[in-house]
């Protein structure tokens, strides 16, 4: 069994309130869940309205599949015009960890 995680540090565009922030973050989280069947949530900077960290986890029996899913998730978030991707942190955990 292998577990892969991604952590996206995002700067949000023209957002002036936490309500507007939710309207940007929720669709990204929902699309990742729907398209890739991953576990995903906003995990940091909940009190700041122009920054957020989205965390994502995937479990698979095959590292190739795991890497493919993580790559596609990263491309989806990087391609969103309403956010600027500041950094991505990727971790892979296997049975030996």
Automatic annotation (TrEMBL):
InterPro entries: DUF503 (IPR007546), TT1725-like_sf (IPR036746)
Entry-linked Pfam families: DUF503 (PF04456)
Identification of the protein by name: DUF503 domain-containing protein
Organism for this UniProt entry: Streptomyces heilongjiangensis
Lineage start: Bacteria, Bacillati, Actinomycetota, Actinomycetes, Kitasatosporales
